[in-house]
Structures are given as C-alpha cells and as structure tokens.
Write a structure and sequence with these properties.
Blueprint (H helix, E strand, L loop, with lengths): L2 E12 L2 E12 L3 E5 L6 H8 L7 E6 L2 E2 L8 E4 L11 H11 L4 H14 L15 H13 L5 E5 L7 H16 L3 E5 L3 H7 L2 E6 L2 E7 H7 L4 E7 L9 E8 L4 E8 L5 H8 L6 E7 L4 H12 L7 H5 L1
Parallel strand pairs: 3-8, 3-9, 6-7, 7-8
Antiparallel strand pairs: 1-2, 1-4, 4-5, 9-10, 11-13, 11-14, 12-13
Length: 317
Amino acid sequence: MTPILQAIDVRKQYANHTALDGVSLEVPEGSIFGLLGPNGAGKTSLIRIITQITGADSGEIRFRGEKLNPSHIGQIGYLPEERGLYKKMKVGEQLMYLAQLKGIGKEEARQKIKHWLERFDIKSWADKNIEDLSKGMQQKVQFIATVVHDPKLVILDEPFSGFDPINANLLKDEILAMRDRGASIIFSTHRMESVEEMCDYIALINRSRKVLDGPVRQVRDAYRTQTYEVEGKGHLMITHPDFEELEQSKRENEHFRVLVKLHAGATPNDLLRYLIGPGNVEVHAFRERVPSINEIFIRRVQETQPDYVPDTDSVLA
C-alpha cells in the first residue's frame, strides 16, 4: 500500500535531550496507524514535526511522495492532547473561523459544520459559548474543528480522553468511517484496547527510537508463544513430553481451566487428540492465547529498557 506519510531518519534534539534518534516509519494511505510509546518516548515530538509546529534537526518527512512543506497543512487535521478552544467564543462562530482558516468558503463551511453538529447531536449548542459546554461536548467541538475541512491525514493525540463510553464509541465509529472514506489516521494513545480494535498498523517508539512496527496482525503473530487455553471437565494431568502445563485452576464439579504450552514440533491437533484420548477429559473450549497489543507493548519496552517499571495508569489508561 502506498504511504501517505514517510518519516526518514528523523532526528530531534532539545538541549541535552534527544527526542528522536533516527526514526523512520511509513503510514499507508487509507489506514489507521497507531503511534505508541511510554510517556516521553518521542511521539509528541514526531507529531509536532509532521504538523510543522517544529522542524527536524535532520532527516525528512514526505507527504504523498513530496517533501513536507506549508502547502500540505490544509490536507492535515490535528487534534492535540492539550485541547485549545476559545472559551468565550460561540461554538458555531469558532467552527466557522477555524474552517475558513483551512481555506473553506463560508457557505461550504456552514454546510459541513451543520452536518457535524447534527452528527454529534450538539446542534442546539451552536450559539453557546465554549465555556458553557461540558468537557465531553468541548471534545466533540474540537474533533469537528479537526476534520471539518476533510483532511487527507488526521492526527489524533489521545482522542478519547474525557469521553464517557457512549461518546467514545460514537467517536470510534466516526474514525472508522473516515478511514473507510479514504482518510488516513495517525492515532496516538495509551488505550491499548482501542489500538487492538481500530488500528491496521502500529509503530512503537521508546527512548527516542522506533523499536517495533508493522501490521497489527503480523506484530501479534510474531509474539505468539504456542500457548493454548483449555476448559473442560474431568481430572486433567498432563504428562506428555510435547506439552507443558503452565497454569491450572479447578472449579466445581470437576471443571478446569488450564494453560498449555506446546514444545517444538507439536501441533494444536496433537494436544487436542491427547486431551480427548481414551479415559482423559471432556473438552468444552480450546483457544490459542495470543498476546494482546498491551502485553506486547510492555514486553517490548522492557526488552529495550531493562530498568523500566510499567506504569499501569499510563499504559492502560
């Protein structure tokens, strides 16, 4: 798939701090690309370079094959983590102002704003000041301001922050719909469950360097451990040399749940045949335990930063 955005050996230094150390990645067109990493890893520095808020010390950003330049600003929408709206300004007036800054004519902007206000069910708030809105409603207005000009590339930094589950699902559906209409989305978040649900590709930055990237499915496959979860009934005792019992929990009425690791050369069918062999157990459920993106995130960060202690709040928030 052709990349809409390429970062090529991008480096950025702030005084004695290296924010980006030779980061290269490609965002395929029409995809949702998860940009992941612990706090302070370099994600925000990269986003600020892509949005031309700052410049790289060296390296290059290319947008649709061209070196990034000011003419591309109108094709990019950016929702920063630190929200910024004019609190004394009315919702409709503010959206009109921001849409026109992106080069949209007044009548076209009016139609687009109307569509989005109806879409998010906040049309009745168009004449209210931003400061009169709840945090969640302000988030909706900020999102509309980000996408009202139909950007080709949308950069979302923690877009679900402050949303209740219902509105988070509404926003998720809109992001997926934008991708289906051909937009490309860079999605920076600590919510690993959202990455699992939504992202087609991911890149993990740690200590200013990219340490992992690729399609989500391929990344998960690379970290498979040949471990299977089995639920059933009976007295299970694994003694076969091809299988290793990692964990077993017994329940009432002889029900059990067990994790089994296959040794080299063994297949899932081998394990299943062993489990249901004469005199063994009833198998009620049998599934592979594939590491989640959250588990891969923690493992990869630990591998590249031995003294790292996972911060559950930042990783899973």
